[in-house]
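anyone else get weird line breaks when pasting these?? whatever heres mine. first is seq + tokens for prot A
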Amino acid sequence: MKIKNVKQLSEELNLNTSNVRIKMSEGKLPFLKAGRAFISTEKGVEYYKFIEEHSKTLESLKRSAKVISFVNHKGGCSKTTSVYTIASLLEKQGNKVLLVDLDPQGNSTQTVLEPHVNDEGITLPFPETIKNILIERKANGFISKERIKQTVRKSNFGFDCIPCDISLNSIIVELQNSSFKEILLKEILNEVADEYDYILLDTPPTLGFSVISALTASDYICIVSLAEAFSVMGVEQTLDLVNQIKSQTSVLANPRALEVLGIIVSKVEMNTNISRHFVGELEAFGEDTGINIYSDCLIPKTTKIPESQATRELITDVDPKSESSLSYFDIAMDIDMNVKKDRILEKLKGGL
């Protein structure tokens, strides 16, 4: 993945260096900041050309959030890291982004939000979480945008976040027994859809009710997979669940398109035979099924990511020239382009 500096970008785009920086400041040319330098990639150049070509159409689009679930039924696969890193990159491109933490472990919440501390300096649970609005929506049959926005907090990385903690587990059985369980989360997200361009869902490592609820509310999914044994099997199980949800006949559920944007492969060690083998298995699976594998954007196993998590920083800020940062950068730009292409098609078809 070749890094391009401002001088190289100016030569490739036939712009002077001042105009390159202007395009960056306008959000048209995506970049990462490495010290005093500004860098981009081939995908960044592709993104810029796409935005330039469709600028008038994109400016005419009304804000209407697309919902993306990040899914894996196993823990420890960098799903949460992928969600908040991509959320930050989408936000930096001028999108308004909401991250909804649906995992009772609350790892996204703990990483992207300042702790809720009382006057004595004691860290307390957040007074408003996703649990509160889910249970209120179930009890009342309606929840207002204003009430939902009371749970929203500004993250340290620019995007908004609805927090979650272990208390979500206390209402799962009650939600499962609800007559309207299919639409609780979907209806909540619909209320704030005109406030955002993207709503990203960090789902728990399970294929249970919380994930089913998230997928029913989603336009797209990203599967995050490890390059290890049973990785393809895990992807297949997730896709089986997606197909079950898409085939629901419930008028209430009315699941969305649920398009798979791609499979992010994390913690890869391409210097080992075992990683190369399982990456190859995933690539073969992608060829057979027509599902996009981000094979040019593998996330390598590195100590830098857990170190950045410990300091509650972004890998793209801590080590912007690393393979991890550049891969996340390219994945985020690819997601943004593909979703915007879909929105343009919707407009052409009279959907917006």
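and prot B, same format (seq, then tokens)
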Amino acid sequence: MTEARALGHITPRAPIWPPTILDRYLFNELLGPFAFGFSAFTLIFVATQIIAIGRLVSEEHAPLWAAVEYFLWQMPYFLLQVIPMAMLLGTLLAMQRLSGESEVTAMKAGGISLARVVAPLLVVGFVLSLVALALQELFVPFANDKAAYVKNQAIEHAGPAVASLQAVNRLPGGGKQVTIAGGLDVPTQTLLNVTVIRYDPHEKPQEFIIADRARYVPPNWAFQNATTYNFAPDGTVRTVSSPELEVDIGERPNQIAKQQVDISDPEQLSRAEIKERIESGRLSPDQVRSFTATYASKLARPFAAFVFTLIAVSFGLRPVRGGGGTGLGFGLAVAIVFVYYVIATIFLSVGSVATWLAGPAAWVPNVAFTAIGIVLLRRASRV
């Protein structure tokens, strides 16, 4: 029987939900350092882009407003890198302060386990991982399209695409839809000389749609002066003419344009877009392996925020004496980020060797750093 029980007093465990005073206190302690880290790493990315803006204005004679708008639409992609870094630095600084002022020791003396102390920080890291994943899948592709549109229209003054363009997407219940266009007028986001062919699950054509032009009206396309040919099972053909017909071809304007120039760069696409490219059958075997590796990596990469939080907790428990905590924390954060992304890049190449390797290789950095963080945290809890 422990002394506490002998005295008739047992220290209650802090509940996990709903959030307690302890949770709110730790969240407030994290908020300031996280904001500092977010601002610091964002400014680093901004500084590198200012040089790019100056080059666009001076060398390519782009309007300043267009160069700035192009840069702003690229920012969501950079924020995906900033969120895990900011969480790493914020957790490091918060834990260094709590440990340096013996607050963690006081919490442990009060009967609160170290795991319970750091649980709110890990929850925040996991939530931010989900936010980064949602940002990557839902908003970054849209922002990339806007950036490409600004670059084509205002910076490069691109005209209609001369090469034929093609989009393939699967239909509900089987079958597929193939869209072929003679070109894309970038300023008006209009496809020229468009033909849509819909096939049943047995690869037999069911419907043809032919139009001179198709203008993008999100989220679909408005086919102008369209003629639709429906093929019945008995062999008869029914023809319908429509002044304007709304059709979903499964692609946005810049997605179609990027087929010609960025087909080898899956990093610019969302996981859904990468999957469509893989299933389209237009990729070479080498490209299929590369796209599959990136597809798996894009699922694992956002969870770096959680992994970095776990690692930062372990390192932050070591108090920094004599000042310099912020500088040391920033340097340690940069070192951890560098090692993590070097390992991630290596295993991205490993995952490109064979499609079956893509999934395991993508998660190796997260699993390895999580294991290290757990081991360090267990050691710290025994102190």
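btw re prot B: The longest helix spans residues 114-155. DSSP finds eleven helices and six strands in the chain.
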